[in-house]
Structures are given as structure tokens and as C-alpha cells.
Design brief:
Number of helices: 9
Distance between the termini: 84 Å
Largest sheet: 6 strands, mixed
CATH architecture of the largest domain: 3-Layer(aba) Sandwich
Strand content: 15-25%
Shape: globular
Order of helices and strands: HEEEEHEHEHEEEHEHEHEEEHH
CATH topology of the largest domain: D-Maltodextrin-Binding Protein, domain 2
Radius of gyration: 27 Å
CATH class of the largest domain: Alpha Beta
Bound molecules: glutamine
Helix content: 40-55%
Structural class: alpha/beta
Length: 262
């Protein structure tokens, strides 16, 4: 009797092992099939150029680029069923790269200006920017007029650079690769102020002792995504997605996550 039980158990064990193995290999086959399906239906990529030195719009968090622009772009790519790829480049090579079709679009807290519109097309605007002046807490600069004859730090090729060069003369402007470097120069006393967009300005003031933002702002502007002039098809698709994301509150939720009300 015992012997019979043993044999029966062995048979049951063998049968279930075989069944389990079969199930496993079926699973494997299914996974392989699924992988093949995603590979053959590989998503089209959406290459966005940015300059990830512009918090809270784009900045590095570990090895990732995060921020308002990165998240809005991701939401757009998701809506379009595309795979977002972000290229981190110098701010002044974004527009030339979009013109050369190296990137599908440029998104970098970029202000819409008449001059830029001669080179690229701009999407619907998704945010407002304000050019402000960062000064030392004990500075004698009290108004925009006081900037005359002062050493002004800017980020190369940004609107802050363009407007300040026009208003106060090339000889008074020192250009830096990014806002962090311009702010360091202010802390070190190499320039008297920095003209830059308000949200990055708030970040730089918070990160450095003894700085403040001048109360009167300098220029108000609109941020938008830029595209190659020939690629109106992509711009139309992105605009439709962006407008939906503005209408359903997604853009506001993303902005509120990064910009806390004062
Ligand atoms: N808004 C400014 C511009 O478009 C600065 C943008 C930036 O530095 N990323 O020129």
C-alpha cells in the first residue's frame, strides 16, 4: 500500500512539474511575442532641445532632466503616442539646431520674439515670463534707470541679453553661459546685477546669501515651443495636444508643482 502511494505521489509530482514547465515556456513565448509587438510598433521619437540650467523650467535631478518644460513635453508626447527624447545643449544652439532639423522642437522657457519668429515658428504660449533684475541686498540700484553705467550680467543670447544690450550698451554687458554662472559673478562682485527670467531668478536668490530681486520688473514676455518653419505638421499636432493640456488643467497642475504661490 505504502509503495503504491509513493508511486502515485511520484506520478502526480512529475505530471505537475511537466505542466508547470509547459506553462512557463508558454509564458515565455507570450512575452517574446509581446516584446516583438512593441519593437515592430516602435514609437516615433520627439526630440526636444533644451538648456537644462533653467530651474524650474528645466534642470538636472540626478541623471534626469526634470522641470515644467520637461513634464509638459512628456505629456504632449504621451498624447501623441511618441517617445520623448531630451537633448541638453547651449541655449544659443537651440534655434540653429531646430533650423537644421537636428531637433524636432526647442523648449527652454523660450520667449517669443519678432526676431526669432524670422527663424522659427512658435507654438501656442504655455507660460508667461518676466525679465527681472537680481541685485545684492545692499545695492544702490533702486530702479531700472539706475542700471545706466552699471555692469550687467546676462545669459548669452537670451532676451535679457538682447534687451539689456539695446538699452544699456554692449560695453556694459557681461555674457555668461547660464544663469548660475551669472549669479556667481554677482556674488563675487564682478557684475552689479543680473538680468534674467523671474522664476530662475527666485531659485538663484534662494540658493545664494545676500541677493534680492529688484521690485520693478524689466520686461514681460510669453514662453512657447519653437519648430522648424517647414514642419508645420508637427507644430499643428503639438499645438492641438498642448491646447488640450491647457484646457484640462494639466499644464496648470505641472506649473503649480514647481512654482509655489508667493
Ligand atoms: N526667456 C529667455 C529667452 O527666451 C531665457 C530662456 C533661457 O535662458 N532658457 O531668451
Amino acid at each position: 500500500m505504502k509503495k503504491f502511494l509513493c508511486i502515485a505521489l511520484a506520478v502526480i509530482l512529475t505530471v505537475s512539474m511537466v505542466a508547470a514547465f509547459a506553462a512557463c515556456s508558454k509564458d515565455n513565448k507570450e512575452t517574446t511575442a509581446a516584446t516583438e509587438a512593441t519593437t515592430t510598433e516602435a514609437k516615433e521619437t520627439l526630440v526636444m532641445a533644451t538648456n537644462a540650467e533653467f530651474p524650474p523650467y528645466e534642470f538636472h535631478e540626478g541623471d534626469k532632466i526634470v522641470g515644467i518644460d520637461a513634464e509638459i513635453a512628456q505629456a504632449i508626447a504621451d498624447k501623441l503616442g511618441m517617445e520623448l527624447k531630451i537633448e541638453d545643449v547651449q541655449f544659443d544652439s537651440i534655434i540653429p539646431g531646430v533650423q537644421a532639423k537636428k531637433y524636432d522642437m526647442g523648449m527652454a522657457g523660450m520667449t517669443v520674439t519678432k526676431e526669432r519668429q524670422e527663424s522659427v515658428n512658435f507654438s501656442t504660449s504655455y507660460a508667461k515670463g518676466v525679465q527681472v533684475v537680481i541685485i545684492k541686498e545692499n545695492s544702490d540700484i533702486k530702479s531700472i534707470d539706475d542700471l545706466k553705467g552699471k555692469k550687467i550680467g546676462v545669459q548669452t543670447s537670451t532676451t535679457g541679453d538682447i534687451y539689456a544690450t539695446d538699452d544699456f550698451g554692449e560695453e556694459n554687458i557681461t555674457k555668461f553661459d547660464n544663469g548660475a554662472m551669472a549669479t556667481q559673478a554677482l556674488v563675487a562682485g564682478k557684475v552689479d546685477c543680473v538680468i534674467i527670467d523671474n522664476e530662475p531668478a527666485k531659485n538663484y536668490v534662494a540658493a545664494n546669501e545676500g541677493l534680492k530681486i529688484l521690485e520693478t520688473s524689466y520686461v514681460e514676455e510669453d514662453y512657447a515651443i519653437c519648430f522648424n518653419k517647414e514642419n508645420t505638421e508637427l507644430m499643428d499636432k503639438v499645438n492641438k495636444a498642448l491646447e488640450e493640456l491647457i484646457a484640462d488643467g494639466t499644464v496648470k497642475t505641472i506649473v503649480d508643482k514647481y512654482i509655489k504661490a508667493d
